[in-house]
Amino acid sequence: EPGAIKAFHLHRRQTDVWFVPPGDKMLLVLLDVRAESPTVNAQRRLVLGDGASRLVRIPPGVAHGVKNLAGARGRIIYFVDTHFSPHPDQCDEGRLPWDFVGAEIWDVIRG
User: Fold this and answer.
1) pLDDT tens string 31-70
2) Number of neighbours of residue 58 by Cβ within 10 angstroms
3) Each residue's pLDDT tens digit, 87-110
4) Sheet holding 62-68, edge to edge
5) Alpha carbon of 59 to those of 21, 37, 64, 105: distances in Å?
6) Measured over all CA atoms, what is the biggest interatomic distance in the chain, rounded to whole angstroms?
7) β-strands 25-32, 62-68 pairing
8) How far apart are CA 85 and CA 87, in angstroms?
C-alpha cells in the first residue's frame, strides 16, 4: 500500500534477487549486519522502479526492508535460492525492528 514499510528482515543462508517494475517506486534499505564483513554496519538506500529496470542481489546476512514511495499499491518480484520453511529449527528468516537504525532511514530526501 502507499507509504507502507515492510521493515527489516534477514536470512542466514538465503540470497534474494529483487525487481520492482518500472511503473512502481520503492525505497529499498540495506544494512550489513554480518559481524565478519569488511562493510559491517554499512547502509545503502536504493530507489527501485521509478521508470528504471534493475535487479538487486541481497546476500545472506544483509538486512533489508522496503517502503512504497508510490501513490498506488506496489509490487516486488523476487527470486530466492532457498525454500522457506516456517519450522523453527529450519526457518532462515530473522527480524529487526523497523527503526533499528533510526526512523529517519525511511524518510524521503528531497534536493
Assistant:
1) 999 999 999 999 999 999 999 999 999 999 999 999 999 9
2) 19
3) 777 778 888 999 999 999 999 877
4) 43-49, 25-32, 62-68, 5-11, 93-95
5) 21, 12, 10, 20
6) 46
7) antiparallel
8) 5
Whether 53 and 20 have beta carbons less than 8 Å apart is answered as: no
Distance between CA 20 and CA 53 in Å, rounded? 7
> Comparing C-alpha atoms, which of 59, 80, 78 is closest to residue 19?
78
Collapse the DSSP code of 81 into the 3-class scheme (helix H, G, I; strand E, B; otherwise coil) and give the result.
Answer: coil
Q: How far apart are CA 68 and CA 66, in angstroms?
A: 7
111 has a pLDDT exceeding 80: no
CA 72/CA 23 separation, integer angstroms: 10
CA 68 to centroid of chain Cα atoms: 11
**DSSP structure class, residue 76:** -
Q: What is the pLDDT of residue 109?
A: 78
Q: What is the pLDDT of residue 3?
A: 95
What is the amino acid identity at position 55?
Answer: L
